[in-house]
Amino acid sequence: MTWEKDLNIQQLDETISKFNKLILVSAPSSGWINAIRNTLGMSARTLGERIGLSQPRIALMEKGEVDGSISIKTLEKAAQGLGCRVVFALIPESGTLQEMRGKQALKKARQINQYTELHMELEEQATEDNFRQQSIKMMADDYLRKWPRDFWDDL
Q1: Is 90 within a domain?
Q2: CB count, 10 Å around CB of 113?
């Protein structure tokens, strides 16, 4: 079962990597609908006729895109009227999904180790730093291998 999860994350990372160039692209301040419509020289009335909406509704749609309240379905409808497609993806803020898993595994391992070390110190049985680092690495590797159901839960 784990190899399937590993394969899925690898394949999704490959797909996501194709979108990385788009991260640096910002939407026009007037929104994509308005910018493309005006660049094409298309009136709001014409776009409205193409997608079955009134001119005032097109203005509201463009405003909704700018303020972030437009739905994906409405954005797709506008794109269709403009002869375009909506490209939508969730991109990790930094790195890959696999790197996100690695960071989470280390985080959980450090939390468990910190809790254990606290109790060990109270009993005057503190371990050396080298041993702690090895323990954290082994626990993180174990988390990555087993990928438990509570992997993303906070301790």
Answers
A1: no
A2: 19
Q: Tell me the C-alpha to C-alpha distance, in Å, between residue 77 and each of 43, 80, 85, 133.
A: 16, 5, 9, 54
Q: What is the mean pLDDT of the chain?
A: 91
Cα–Cα distance measured from residue 65 to residue 54, given in angstroms and rounded to the nearest whole number: 17
In this prediction, residue 56 carries a pLDDT of 97
Same domain, 56 and 28: yes
Beta strands in the chain (DSSP E): none
**Eight-class DSSP state of 127:** P
pLDDT tens-place string over residues 119-136: 676 677 777 888 889 999
DSSP, res 155: -
Distance CA 103, CA 99 (A): 6
> Would you give the distance in Å from CA 60 to the centre of its chain?
28
| Tokens read off for 151 | 């992997």
Task: Determine the distance from the C-alpha atom of residue 132 to the mean position of all C-alpha atoms in its chain, rounded to a whole number.
Answer: 32
Cα–Cα distance between 106 and 101 in angstroms, integer? 9
Domain span including residue 121:
97-146
Q: Residue 124: is it exposed, middle or buried by C-beta count within 10 angstroms (0-12/13-18/19+)?
A: exposed
